[in-house]
Records
---
Amino acid sequence: MLDERSVRCLGVSVASGSAEKLQRALKSAELLETSLHPFRSGGRIVFPVKAPVPESILREVEAVLVEEEFIERRRCPRSIREALSTVLPPELLAELPSSYDIIGDIAVVHIPPTLEPYASLIGEAIMRVNQSIKSVWGEAGAVEGIFRTRRLVHLTGENRTFTIHRENGCIFQVDLRKVYFTPRLSGERMRIASLTSKEETVADMFAGVGPFSITIARHSRARVYAAEINPDAYALLVENIRLNKVEDRVTPLFGDSRMVLSERQVLADRIIMNYPSNPFGFLEAALKILPGRGTIHLYGFTESLDKLRIEVLESLANMGASGDVSVKKLRPVSPRKFLAAADIAVKSR
Ligand SMILES: C[S@@+](CC[C@H](N)C(=O)[O-])C[C@H]1O[C@@H](n2cnc3c(N)ncnc32)[C@H](O)[C@@H]1O
């Protein structure tokens, strides 16, 4: 636990019956030290003060000047660096993560190897900075596998990974141990929703718990088909569709999006391909459910926007299609790579 600090300072001791009167007098003389806690000792209260108190105030309530240890009042630190400034040496303070994800009332943080011995202290610091956080988890390894999940280690707070996350006026149940979810794409989800019109049919090929599908359906009122292969994510997707009252517009489909969308004979005007580790493995299937013209939003990890744009154009050409491609950087994922969005206006097939 982070220790409470005590400070030796000047105080005024008074019988508890006169404490309120003295407190008022000290406040109006601007002498009360508000960063420290007063305390009770026997039948007396001891108030911390900023400077010697005039005899006239002391005499009025029969108080005496003393020197005592006072506990510092806890105030919320503004950053984990500030919270740990008296606990970690400067060279380790410099290595503290500058950001972490907040999903509902859970925080997920990347702890560099040098700070691993201090992982639970960092967790406690996060909970002091953000008082609404009830549980902190550390990332243990990369996002991996078909389901794109990540191993997490519990650092502090409640031992649970289930939470309810709110963004863009939508609500999502998430279980971070079982499904993929990032709050960092909330702006991108709204961008796509704002590009979509009510008359469109949208296919979300990698729906997860539904953040793209549900945001689009709620804000544009378009018809959405949401495919997901992870049974845990699918179960939460179904629940989130109900919670957000979009059952009439979002159809969840369980299984491989390369199959379930065409089996359902979906013909889309717009397709979301949020599978950045292997987007091109699914482009052929996407083109199959896009009748001639339409828009694909493809996400990929890349070192350069030009490289991604050329890869998209070449893949389209290999599949007998063409289109206009505009690309944009979303967020860094490693020192050299970032996540990028390619908006593809497919022209012909
Ligand atoms: C990167 S996550 C994106 C989830 C969601 N779009 C979001 O923003 O939170 C990719 C998702 O695709 C799912 N997935 C992987 N392969 C799939 C496939 N062939 N068909 C359908 N879903 C798939 C994974 O289980 C995972 O939930």
---
Amino acid sequence: MARDFFAEIVANEAVAEKVFRLTIDAPTLAEESRAGQFVHVKISDELTLRRPLGIASTASGVKIFYRVVGRGTQLLSRRQSGERLNILGPLGNGFTPRGDKVLLVGGGMGLAPLLCAAEQFTADVLMGGRNADEVNFWREEFHTRAEKIFLTTDDGSVGLYGFVTDALPDILAANHYAAILTCGPEVMMRGVARLAAAKKIPCEVSFERRMACGLGACLSCSVDTADGRKKVCKDGPIFAAEKVFGGERDE
Ligand SMILES: Cc1cc2nc3c(=O)[nH]c(=O)nc-3n(C[C@H](O)[C@H](O)[C@H](O)COP(=O)(O)OP(=O)(O)OC[C@H]3O[C@@H](n4cnc5c(N)ncnc54)[C@H](O)[C@@H]3O)c2cc1C
Ligand code: FES
């Protein structure tokens, strides 16, 4: 159940250019969170709206990874250990738990909720980023949590040169997965969903929309699905790929 509470900041450190790892002391949140859920953070009294951030780890404190993209995340990057943050969460539905091994496919900050999935499920991960700086810290984070790590970069500075969708067909040909869970840019998730559908592998996608209330009350995060209009904050952020991308196949 979502709670509105204050948590102490344990650490708030830069791990790559403009990317930070925030650790908060929130044992009840850690206990109650499922992979794929998020928190709505009141960063500062200067901002009216909270900001949604994915729960990336619940193993040792609650960890959140965020990229500085605007005023809210910039203010968050200045918060110090020992200060307290107002948190609303856990929010959203989370990934469907699976007994057998899953493949996690993520790009950029989309890897954050997948890290939590690697903690809670047996998983391999296929990660993509622009360059080595963008993926190296993720590689370290997934190292102890995922079984196999596959890597692509747009500039080929580490891993396979190209996008995750270039590497995916060979990985699916060589391995068996109960499901694919994906988070990242929508164009990437659409490509992943198409390849999963062609192999008849269930695929779940994590959606992002700008949010206000985070509780299903304001309609600012609506998305059209095969089951009608849904709210990403309450009905999502995790959706079956065929419900949001229309079950396109690449056959
Ligand atoms: C469920 C959910 C989970 C998220 N998890 C993470 C996470 O783990 N790590 C992370 O770095 N970010 C995550 N985000 C995105 C994060 O919420 C935004 O980057 C953040 O709110 C931006 O706040 P800001 O004040 O810094 O930027 P703003 O000044 O509000 O915006 C700066 C730029 O970011 C864009 N933007 C803002 N919010 C969103 C959004 N929700 N989706 C797409 N673009 C947006 C704006 O269009 C604008 O271009 C998540 C979003 C959602 C909905
Ligand atoms: S953010 Fe208000 S309904 Fe989703």
